[in-house]
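Below is how a single chain appears once it has passed through the pipeline. First comes the sequence as given, then the structure the pipeline wrote out for it. We keep one example in the README because the format questions we get most often are answered faster by looking than by reading.
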Amino acid sequence: MKIVIVGAGNVAFQLADRFSEKGVVVAQLFNRNIQKAREIAEKHQIDFTNDPSKLYRDADVYLFCISDDGIGLLANELKQFIPDRLVAHTSGAVDSHILHPFFANYGGFYPLQTFTKNSIPNFEKIPVMITANSESNLSTLKILASKISTIVQCVTDEERLLYHLAAVISNNFTNHLFGKAYGLLKNNDLSFDLLMPLIEETVQKIHFNNPDEIQTGPARRGDMKTIKEHLNLLNLNPELKKIYIDISNSINPKLKL
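Resulting structure:
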């Protein structure tokens, strides 16, 4: 199986690594910024270009690993070169039908994970969610996904969007809160490292429990004395104070803070 990766961001970087490791032929990497394309391509001796007319024409799958806003624009630009090839984007939030006006064969190929270039993910455990406009295309994407992950899930566009929403809440929002906790402690010359056992235990518990059923803390208990002490500490940080109040009210609506 031969693929072309379109894009040179974090997702393209990690997928190029994983596909190459698993013997999938990455025939080419296309990106407008030629330097970024070179950084990824030279690592694996992949052909690269920023010229649409030089796009490899015979790949089995073309993966658009680009920003959500750029998918339609780039699809329109590349349609004349690969009109009959299978094109899939890696977005969790964009409907696969955005590709329909440009390509006869299209779908979605969404690895449900957060990617950065300085961290090597365990792809074996990363769910890859696929969708396509035909059973044949779905089968191709399933084979490709199975090369890099043991968890391949066929989903609708609506289901993928719901997973993406849940992923934003559970990952992006919690990471933001980690950052707020880090700043709170750092500003008081205290160590965030001491929270790591607590964070790790919390993550471990939700492997086996409904998160709602293991919720603890002053809001869950209705412990107004502790809540008021916390809010007093946050008087000089109104942004974090509002977050504290909103989440506490969400945990326990009876508080009405």
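The chain is about 45% helix and 15% strand.

See the next section for the split statistics.
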